Amino acid sequence: MVDFTLTDEQKDLRDLAHDFAEKEIRPVAWELDRDGGFPQAIINKAHEVGLMNTHIPEEYGGPGLNSLDGCIIEEEMSWGCSGIQTSLGANGLAAAPVMLGGSDEVKREFSAALLESPKLASFCLTEPDAGSDVSGMRTRAVRMGDKYVLNGSKCFITNGSYADYFVVYAKTDPEAGHRGISAFLVHKDDTVIVDKKEDKMGQRASNTATITFNDTEVDARYLLGEENHGFKLAMRVLDYTRPGVAAMATGISRAAFEMATAYSKERVQFGVPIAMHQAIQFMIADMATKVHLSRLAAWNSAVLLDQGKRNTLESSHAKRFAADSAMEVTTDAVQIFGGYGFIKEYKVEKFMRDAKIMQLYEGTSQIQRLVIARETLLPRRIEEPATATA
Length: 390
Ligand code: COS
Description:
The chain is of the alpha+beta class.
């Protein structure tokens, strides 16, 4: 039986994250959104209080929090600002392939670097011509003695301009399709070029950049997993991280829902607060259901992972539902504000812009439906179990 009763430790974690979101994130969120500034000061503080790198196992010196713990933190922090949480959480996405595929020595070295100081790591999968179609990537890695040499460009890379480490997927056998991709942990040097910082619709406090690797040399010990097994590693990573994205989407929905509910009790039209009108009540009811079910789906997919079970189907259910719900809930929140919702001063429109990326990154809502359809029609297609080590 699934039991979502939080332990005292999980309640403390939720309070810590909520307090941080309220005191550190919210006061600067709208300013960083307006200016597109990078939340370095918040990253430093989050690192100091233990709200970053929470996934690093205890055996490597980390807090070893599980996937459900991660969801609890990500919802609260995204209630503060999902753009800032994207900056704080990107290390988790980059560290997952290291924890799943790296040698013990590499895991130890990488964990120590992230835990010692607020260093950032980026996950580099997407390319201009390879978004949903991962195996269409063109970045090449060629083995030369005890090194690999990487060439190619990756786009939409979170924290790309500020990262010291990059987990890069590249073709090691270009003729072999998805069976010719490998993953590498790359340390930044002067062959790693930040080409472009994107000017985005939402999550403007997160840095998104194009990164080019020009004859970048990587020691062979930084190959993650086996050569040519990088595609499956990436899929396993996404199974691992999509519950967290669903939790982030829940945080955005909840924030917009709270703001709209409060406003509906204050705004008077036709002689009563608009919350007294059934048209608004039904919107509020649907929003409440979507927030509630988004959280349950995120937690369910996380708990499966914590139990060492494969959660491919459930993480796609959660990511798809929570992301689409975030778009709907935030749009309805703007609607409840009426014309004021369209005015930046009223703040609620930021959630609608931030919600859009939830339907796009870590697999679009269409890709989640593709995974759900395949898993439903061919449930035993993927033999490999997820491990609970990352
Ligand atoms: N875990 C382990 N293995 C998996 C897997 C999973 N979750 N999903 C697929 N695989 C395996 C398959 O079993 C298959 O193995 P074989 O080579 O032994 O046959 C292999 O990977 C290829 O799978 P599939 O045929 O499903 O690959 P497709 O090229 O059709 O791609 C999708 C599948 C579209 C689902 C995948 O490319 C995807 O998730 N794309 C979105 C990428 C994304 O999220 N990008 C965002 C960037 S990260 S911010």
